Structure formats: C-alpha cells, structure tokens
Amino acid sequence: MTIRSRQIMALGSTAALGLLLVWGVIRLPDFGAYPGPYSDVLNAAAVAERHVTNIPSAVNFDYRAFDTLGEEFMLFVAVAGLAVLFREQRGRSNRKNPSVVQVSEAVRWMGSGLIGFTVLFGMMIVLHGSLTPGGGFQGGLILAMTVLLIYLIRGDEAFERLSRRAFVEALEAAGAGAYVLIGLAMLTTGGMFLENLLPIGRLRELDSGGTIFLINLATGVEVSAAFVLLFAEFLEESRKPSSER
Amino acid sequence: MNVLPYVIAVWLFLAGLYGVATSRNLIHLIVCLSVAQSSTYILLIAIGYRQGAGPPIFTYVPPGTPAVDPVVQALALTDVVVSAAMTALLLAVAVRIYKQTGTLDPQKIRPLRS
Amino acid sequence: MEPLVPLLIALPLLGAALLMVLQTAFPRSWADGFAITTAGGVAVLGGFFLLETADTPLVYWLGGWTPRDGIAVGIALFVDPFSAGIATLIGLLGTASLIFAWRYFDSVGRMFHALMLVFIAAMVGFCLSGDIFTLFVFFELMSVAAYVLTGYKTEESALDGCLNFAVTNSIGAFFILYGICLLYGRTGALNLAQIGRALGGGPADGLIMIALLLIATGLFAKSALVPFHFWLADAHAVAPTPVCVLFSGVMVELGLYGIARIYWTVFDGPMTGEQAAVRTVLMIAGTVTALTGGMMCLLQRHVKRLLAFSTISHAGVLLIGLALLSPQGSAGASIYLVGHGLVKGALFLCAGILLHRYRDVDEISLRGKGRELPMTGVIVLLAGLALAGLPPFGTLLGKSLIEEAARGHHYGWVSAVLFLSSALTGGAVLRAGGRIFLGWGRTAEEEASGPTEQEKPETKEARRRMHWTMVAPPAMLVAFAALIGLAPNLGEQAMAAVARFHDRSSYAGLTLDGRAPAPAPILLSSRSGSNIGTGLLSAATAVALALFELFRNRLPNRVDKGIRRMLRPAVFVLNGWHSGHVGDYVVWLMIGTTLLGALWLVTVQLI
After folding, report:
1. Are C593 and A20 an interchain contact pair (Cβ–Cβ within 8 Å)?
2. Better-predicted residue by pLDDT, C549 or A57
3. CA angle, corner C287, sides to C489 and A18, nearest 5?
C-alpha cells in the first residue's frame, strides 16, 4: 500500500473497530460497581488462610501461582532472547571501549548517597511482599535499578564487575528454576503442584505465608537478574565500537 | 459518566493501533504498541474498582472492610513487568535491523521480496 | 496417576532453567540429549494421559485450591483426550525437531535448547489450561518464545520477519485480553467452566458478541487465518527449520483448538440460538482462507514460504471442520489436525535437509539437485500425497469426516472447497518435489513470480553425507501419519470424545462440582470412515496439477500464454498485499476484525 492509502485505511478501520469496542464496553457494569464473586471470596478468606495481608501478593504467589510462573518465564525468555540477538552480531570486539555516558561530579556525589538506601529499600520490598504492597516483581526491579545507579556513578568497571554475564544469567535461571522446584517439591510430599505445605507463620510478621515467602524471594532474584542482564546488554550496544566513528 | 474509564481505555488502544499501522519509524511503532498494551491494563484495573472501597491490603484494617478486586491488580502487576521486557526485546530487534539495513523506516526495510 | 499432570509443563520448564544455569558446564551433545529426553518425556506422558482420560477427563487443581460452592478459587488443568492428544503431538514434534537439530546446527548456544523447551512447555500449558487467564498467559509465553526462536539464527538473519510476527501476534494477544476483561466484568470469574455457568443460557447480548469477536480474532491471528495470516510466511522464511516444524505443525493449530475450547465451554450457552450465524460466518472465513492459502502456495518458489502458505490453507480447512459445530465435524478436524501436523513437520525437516546440503531453498535453483537424496525425495512425495488426501493417511480420515458433517448440514459445497484446497497444496508440494528431486520442469524461469530471497544458510558449510538423525525423524513422522489413518475405529472414538468436548454442562459439572459426567451417547448412524474414492481422486488431481505446472512449456504456446494472462491480475493483487510491511498487516488485522464483527452482528440481528 502507498503511505496515503495506508493512512486512510488505517483511520477508517480504527474508527470502525473503535465503534465495535465501545459498543461492547458500555455494556460492562458501571465503573465502581464490580459485582463479581471471585474477589469477595478471596478478600474474605486470604487473610485467615494464608496469614498474609497483601492480597494481590497472595493471589499472585499462591492462589494463581501458576500464572505467575508463566509470566516469570516470559521475562526469562524475553531477556534471554535479547541477549542472543545482541551477542550474535557483536562478537567480542568492543567490550573494552569506553561507554558514551559522561557523568558530572554532582550526580556522582548524590548517587553515592542513594545507593545504600536503594539496595535496602529494594530488599525490604521483596521481603515484605506478603505484608505490604510490593513483592518480588517490584522489589527485583528496584534492585536492578541499583545496579544501573552504580553504572551511572562509578562507571564501567564497577558495573562490569557486578554484571558478569555468566553469573547473572545463571542467577536468573536459578531464580526461575527455583520457582518450579518449589512447586515440584510439594508434589513429592503428596500435595498438588504449587500447594503450600509450609507453616504459614504469624499474621503481620515476616514469616507469614509459607511458600509465598519463598516464591517471592525466587521471583525477586530472577527479576533483578533479568533486568541487570537487560541493562548490561543494552549498555554494551551503546559503546563506541572500535572500527566505526 | 459511569463507563468513561472503559471508553478511555478503548481510545488509548485505538490510538496505539493507529500509530502502529501508520508509523514511519520502528522505535515510534514499538512505543505505540506499548501504549496499546497499557490500555489493556487500564481496562483491567478499572473493571475491578468498587465505589468507596479501599485497597485490598489488610495490614492496618481488619479483614472484611470493603476492598477492591485484588485479582485484577495481581494480573496487571505481573503483566506490566513482563511487557517492559517484551518492549525491550522488540527494541533490540529494531536496533539490529538498524545496524543491518541502516534505516528504521518500515517502508524502506527491504522485506522478503524478490 | 493424577500427580503427574503438572509434570507435562513443569519438567520442560525446569529443564530449560537447568540448561541455562549449567550452560558451559556440559558439552553440546549432552544439552542435545537432555533436551531430546525431556521432549520425549512430554510425548510419552501425553500419550499416557491420552489413553487414561479416554473415558473420563481429569481435572487437576493447582495449589490444591478446589472450588467452593461452585466458585473456582484456583487454576484448573483439564486433561481430556483432546488436550492430551495435542500435548502428545507437541512432544512428538518437539522430539523430532530436536533430534534433527542435533546434527543440523554446527554451533548453537545452549539457549536454543532452553528456548525450545520453554516453547514446548508453553504450548502444552496452553492446551491443558482450564482457566481463561492461564490460557492467555501461556499464549503470550508461547508467542514470546516463538519470537525469540524466529530471530535466532546462527548466521545473519532477516529480522523483519521476526518483527512482523511479534507485532501482529502481540496485537492479537491484546485483543484476547480485552475479551477476557469483558467476560470478567460481566461474570467475575476466570475459570472457563464458571464463566460458562455464569453466562448461562442467556441471550447473546452485545458484550458477549464483542467478547467472542475479540477472543476469536486474537486466536485467529495466531492461527493465521485470512486476513490475519500475513505474518506466517515471513516468519517461516526466516526461522530456523526445527522451529518451523513446531510452528506449522502445532503452534498455528493451537489457536483453533483454543477457540474451540473457549467456545464450547463459555459461549455455547448464550450462543445456542445463534449457531447458524456463527457457523455461516466462520465457514466463509475458513473457505476464503483455504482457497487463498492454496493459491498463494502455488505461486511460491521459496520452499519454506510454500509450506507456510499450505499451512494457512489447512488451517482454513480446520476452521471449516470446527465451524460446523457438530461432533462429526470436530472429530474430523481433530484427526486432521494431528495428521497434518505430522506431515507438515516431516516436510519442513526435508526442507531443512535441502537447506543444510545445498544452502538454498529456492525451488527453481535447486532443480535436479535432489537426485542425490532419494530417501528424502520419497518422504517428500509421500507427504505431498498425504496433504492431497491419499489413503491411508490420517488427513483423509479427517477430511472425510468433515465432508460428511458438512453434507449433513446441507453445505455440500464444502466438499468442493476441501477437494480444491488439498489439490492445490498437495500439487504445489509435488511440483516442488518433482522439480527438486527429479529434475523435471523448465530451467531458470520466472513462471511463478513469488518472492525469493538469498536464504542465509543456517549451517556453516554444505555437508557431504546425510546423517541418519536428519532423515529418520521425517520418515517416522510420515509413518505415524499413515498409522493414524489406519487405526481401527478412530473416527468413532473421536466422535464419542467430541460429544463430551461439546457438552458444556458436563465440563462444568466435572470441574466445579467434581461430578463425573454421564456417559456420552454413541452416534452409530453417521459414517466414520475414510472416503477412499475421494481421497484417490484428490491425490490424482494433485499429481495432475503438479505435472501441469512442471510441463507447461510442452503445451501449445497460446494456451500457456492464455492461462498466464488470465491469472495475472489475481497474482498481482495477491503478491501486492503480501508486502512485508508491518503497518499493512496491522491494517488488515483491523479490517478483518471489523468485517467479522459486522458480519456477526448483522447475522445475529443485534443491529
């Protein structure tokens, strides 16, 4: 199609599709009037059954843990694919070249103060996943941000030391594998896959939730490793290659 | 209006799709795709809202206080992180296409034509 | 034996994680062996469950969360002959392609095996799922693994095929999620059985129709039905061969399985009165797909694109079978799915052998070179005839059942469509086979003006001898396809199983209440065997078509020129539409969705 004809057809079909979608969507229950039974059952039962107070976490890591397993592997595959795509083409040619990022003293000074706080904050979010809003996904991302912060402040060598590929990839795979192993472990003791057979601890304390806590940890490890790998690969792409420029 | 949030989600979706269809730059295209994806989260979370209810976190309130739907929040939570990785993957593909063909315009990338 | 169900998914995932953790610790052949064993394990377990659940399906509640008062709290895995059967097919094709990949790739990272295992696990998870969001999650996982595998080549690759694939299928996934949101908003449930029960037998109002439209469109984009099919040929042309085996053999068909499962558990209730509308619209879509795919197939000279278009055509046939909404049609479609998957997998492996040996997949430049590969030639010949419907292959059994069902619903023209599409696709394969392995046909000509490309070889140098691990898998797959056609009473057993597949209340009863369903009534009146006469006829037509294409220059010049002039406008238009531009594909996706929606709303008389 020519550019013009594509624009016209896109406009027309988007408008028509929009009409159909709106026509369907206005028949949903009013905003604020969600009727369904699923959430009521969970809201009522989750605290007592699992001693967790963060219900979305309980949903993610216990009631619907299988979906989260799938999502986690999606992250795993996407980052692995990314790494393959970049590495194939790159070879080992420009690893030692300087990166293009120039950082001022003010940023360095400010950032150094933040690193410690960010690490602790990230770890807190991961560990308290079953108690307060947070969990493996969010906390893992914060921890990965910390590594990026270190890159900004301390430069390439420190970042390289923290993101040795083999180690980070192994860590990522270990996190994903740990999730599956935890689920399988329950199978061996006669339960169902991903069933919680650990003691569920005391309410509002760190040891609540049983396997939710463990799965949370595994997810945190995996997500942080995955995003560190992602940053590392993209940063590598941005280095000045030796032959060009 | 009591279905406005849903219509907004649909609007974002359409804007994203139009962008993907008519884009002249791969990076722009991928971001439009990401916009379309965000609209799905908006719809998801908007569906679970309950008027006058609080968040489904019972750390400081007793269980039994009215709360919004935790299921859609849980679904959206994991989806957001995964979509970030997916966008990164697509951007990596775009970077490689640029390095191979020297252009980011879908019109100019020589596809599988003889 | 119930605890083994999650292993079908957990084992390949664990295997993939292990392969990544221990990447460089083991030599490559260990990684190969490990992956092959895991995939083989999936096939064996799948087969086991296929036999075990023949009478009563199995419901496995993950995490031990059983339903309370009919409300599903956790996620269910539903194992019945269909899901177990497709899982077995996945395992079988996965094992075959991993065995092939052993000697095929000279050097490939560990990631390839890990990614293949995740891909296999995702497909199995998709077909076993009993929860609509789990279906979506595994659909996305399957798609992401597919995107990565498409762009994974040991040498230079053309990544726009990967991009087109990723963008169109992602949009399809968004459509599905929209549909899920609509259903969740209405019913507050994510379990398939529970949604079905909540929707009940109520009238099909706008929300339900749009939800069906969106979910169907998303799955049709995966199944490469026209006009959502454009990504398939591009992706197949660039993906490594073992990956193409899984794509065409089973991933595309999973979309149709998904829509069948969702329709029969969720939408059957509200749409019971509108079956005629659903049937008509989907049959039109299936017919258009089958014929367009067949025609495009003939126009290709790139062997992998040719096979991709033939997959599109067969997906159209599958849709016709499922769209009949009758036990016979669905039984025929499921047998056809398996038969076609095996045969298509074998054909892709043979294309891989050619690519490996000659570093080329252009039919015309490969002319005559295949004479050194007699075994491969025989496999291609048999597979081409199987696609055309030669007895005793499973494809014929499936097609006969579908035709029988169509005739029962007074759609006699379906037989003509099936005949034509199988002749077109079978003929195209036979033509390619004749040209490559027998050296027939004209030399460098542009008789087929389809696109070609310098397919970058997937291996470093041409090989001298064929290792048995590359020829054995396709031979085995074709043999299996023949065995399926020969299996006694397969048609009847399939129909009995399908009766339960179509029974919404027994599905809900088993899942939510733990009640075993009443035994399905056996239909003794319908025919359930292969129609041998039709099969021989369509095979003969395919051979005739291939010979015609190959020896067209022997005809009087005027006839040849006349035919070419007649076909030129159609060819021009079709080739123009398959432009390779991702924006075009997205526009077609939107047009297709809108058309489908408008047709449905009009036929259901909602507007």
Report:
1. yes
2. A57
3. 120
Give the gap in angstroms from C-alpha B114 to the nearest C-alpha of chain A. 17
Neighbours of A240 (CB within 10 A): 11
Are B21 and C140 an interchain contact pair (Cβ–Cβ within 8 Å)?
no
Is the CA virtual torsion A202, A206, A212, A213 positive or negative? Answer: negative
Global ipTM: 0.94
pLDDT confidence of residue C593: 92
Q: State pLDDT tens for residues C392-424.
A: 787 888 888 888 888 888 887 888 888 888 888
Count the residues in chain B: 114
Identify the band that residue C260 occupies on the pLDDT scale cut at 50, 70 and 90.
very high
Q: Where are the beta strands (DSSP E) in chain A?
A: none
Q: Taking 70 as the threshold, does the pLDDT of residue C17 lie above it? A: yes
Least Cα separation, residue B14 to chain C (angstroms): 10
Q: Token digits for A128?
A: 């308290």
Indicate which of A28, A43, A62 best probes the interface with B, i.e. most B CBs within 10 Å of its own CB.
A43
Question: CA-CA distance, C313 to C307, in Å (whole number)?
Answer: 10
Whole-number Cα distances in Å, C265 to C259, C270, C271, C426, C446: 10, 11, 11, 35, 50
**Domain chopping of chain B, boundaries:** 4-101
- CATH of the domain spanning B4-101, picked from 1.10.238, 1.10.10, 3.40.50, 1.10.287: 1.10.287
What's the rounded mean pLDDT across residues A27-33? 83
Q: Tokens at residue A36, please?
A: 């369904």
Residue A207 pLDDT > 80:
no
Task: Give the global pTM.
Answer: 0.92
Concatenated DSSP letters for C283-294? Answer: HHHHHHHHHHHH
Question: Which of B22, B86, B96 minimises the CB distance to C583?
Answer: B22
Q: Is residue A10 part of a domain?
A: no
